[in-house]
Write a structure and sequence with these properties.
Elements (H helix, E strand, L loop, with lengths): L1 H15 L36 E5 L3 E2 L21 H12 L2 E5 L3 H18 L6 H5 L9 E23 L2 E20 L5 E25 L2 E12 L2 H22 L9 H19 L15 E13 L5 E2 L1 E11 L5 E14 L3 E15 L6 E14 L6 E13 L4 E12 L15 E13 L13
Parallel strand pairs: 1-3, 1-4, 2-4
Antiparallel strand pairs: 4-5, 5-6, 6-7, 8-10, 8-16, 9-11, 10-11, 11-12, 12-13, 13-14, 14-15, 15-16
Helix pairs in contact: 2-5, 5-6
Pfam families: CsgG
Organism: Lutibacter oricola
InterPro entries: Curli_assmbl/transp-comp_CsgG, OMP/PagP_B-barrel
Amino acid sequence: MNKIKISAIISLLFLFSSCAAYFNQPLQVSKARLGENTSQNKILKDILPVTPTIVGVYKFRDQTGQYKLVENGSSWSTAITQGGTSILLKSLEDSKWFTAIERENVSNLLNERQIIRSTRQEYSKGNKKKEQISSIPPLLFAGVLLEGGVVSYDSNIITGGSGARYFGAGGSVEYREDRITVYLRAVSTSNGQILKTVYTSKTILSQGISANLFRYVNLKRLLEVETGVTRNEPAQLAVKEAIDKAVETLIVEGVIDGLWKPQGGEPVVQALKERYEKEKEDANSRVLYDRKLEDRRGKTAVSVTAGTSHISGDYSNPKGKLGTSLAYKFYFNKPNLNLNLGLGYFQLENEGAFKDDFVSFDINLEYDVLPYDNFTPFLYAGLGTISNTNLDNPEFKVQYGLGVEYLATNNIGIKLFGEQNVLMTDDFDGLIRGKRDDFYWKVGLGLNFYIGKPYNKVKSVLFE
């Protein structure tokens, strides 16, 4: 029974630690409510126009032709809402920068105005003010037309998950991410010139979490428990957020280029431009999977490590002994390649047979796999020497290893590594046996202190 309790606890922790939605499952019918506000952080905070611009939107539709994905068979339901025009008109109204006029169903509007004219003319017969009674105000005309649409829906741009099962108990987490892309352009009705084109994108996240227990608790008695939750981000809200962002970007770039004027004059324009440049810089440093590529590491670094060393020689019963090292590394023109010079002190011991203190000097060529991320694996290899503390009988060696580094700040990195040091002799521990040369392992934890400015050579690599 204790094993069952432990298994159940593991399954529940696996579930509850990852999903707050589990505690908010819909068990009752909910009432209608106001629509969700998707735009939480806006650049246009309390910035209003001098005069709203009259714009018309004829069509802003789904241009992807994408249908919903199903596991078996095919679906004729579209993956993207077909009401993009309505969403865009709401975004224009909420922005307070535009006065939108009806153009999507302008034929209905014209028919209704004709009905009004006919009705007024019929009931104004014999009235001297016939012309005044039968006339209605003219329609507004747009100085700018807004065109575009949802041009791309990429499904399963990244999928993944993890799981574990032990003694009949287990759990799993799965996720999938889709992506939509929106283009919006402003066209002048006076000459047909395209004044501005903007482009925004939004990911759509789907998550599934489950936990289960399957155990025989007694003869012919089977306990089976299963629970889970799946959460799918609504595609309509993703479209709305992408359109909201496109409208905001259109306003900001239009203000910077002088297409529309904000209240407050030039100081407001400059403040808005500074905020927008920061956002553009952040956007330019991000790639497809929302990874932010940034020059983080300085041109040189000092590394301090501590760890354990295990000898693998001709004696048995090796013991792990503590050691430390100090290294200096400098980067070449490529920010992911550096030369590492290190000096170390450590002990090697086989219980009851061999024990001594050693110092080593290493030269390594190190390669950072993800140099623009705050978390990166790294590989290294090089040559070195090892001798006892009296510097007697130094021996040459070859070392190679791998590890991971996490940047707590742009100047300080925490690394975990493991390496193998292969000696050029089988007599290192004083005993020759077999054909294999002696070697030893090192596993350690360290800190990298980066010095100087980075190279500023961020590469926006789509798939890295």
